[in-house]
Write a structure and sequence with these properties.
Largest sheet: 6 strands, mixed
Shape: globular
Distance between the termini: 34 Å
CATH topology: Nuclear Transport Factor 2, Chain: A
Protein name: Nuclear transport factor 2 family protein
Number of domains: 1
Strand order of the largest sheet: 2-1-6-5-4-3
Helix content: 40-55%
Structural class: alpha+beta
CATH class: Alpha Beta
Strand content: 25-35%
InterPro entries: NTF2-like_dom_sf, SnoaL-like
Number of strands: 6
Length: 158
């Protein structure tokens, strides 16, 4: 990878911090794929942008900090924090995320985020709920299903 790819990732996170969906979309290849613990596989720029609309719609007080961007031989990694209020509970979450990016034609073709789902659920749900059920596969499936439903509604409306 080169400095241009790392610069594109900085541009992407600057746009995310500003909630500038058009600038974010301009960083993605039309055939991009995205995955994380809540949205395991989202394909195509239009659907991924619908996912970001859902995410940003629930985080009106988003505070993003890009900690590091590292160019590797065939990818770029980014470490970042997203602080926001989880709307379902009103609890403040500081989400620590590690991302991996691959590129094609100077645009992001693969975007994968990793974070500690159990840690997130403890912050989002609080104790004891986050500790007792936040880590279970059934709870994770429920969160994924709700997120997918929100994505489908948003994608259909666009």
């Amino acid at each position: 990878m080169n400095d241009a790819d790392a610069a594109l990732i900085r541009t992407f996170y600057d746009a995310l911090a500003r909630r500038d969906l058009a600038a974010m979309e301009g960083c993605y290849h039309p055939e991009v794929t995205f995955g994380d613990p809540i949205f395991p596989e989202v394909e195509g720029r239009d659907r991924i942008m619908a996912m970001w609309r859902v995410q940003l719609g629930h985080g009106a007080d988003l505070d993003l900090t890009l900690r590091a961007v590292t160019a590797l031989p065939h990818a770029v990694t980014a470490s970042w924090n997203a602080g926001y209020t989880f709307t379902a509970t009103g609890r403040r979450v500081v989400h620590q995320v590690d991302s991996l990016f691959r590129f094609e034609g100077g645009l992001i073709i693969r975007h994968h985020d990793e974070f500690d789902f159990k840690r997130w659920s403890k912050m989002a749900l609080g104790r004891p709920v986050g500790l007792v059920v936040g880590w279970t596969p059934a709870f994770r499936t429920r969160i994924r299903d709700r997120a997918r439903q929100g994505l489908e509604r948003t994608a259909a409306a666009v």
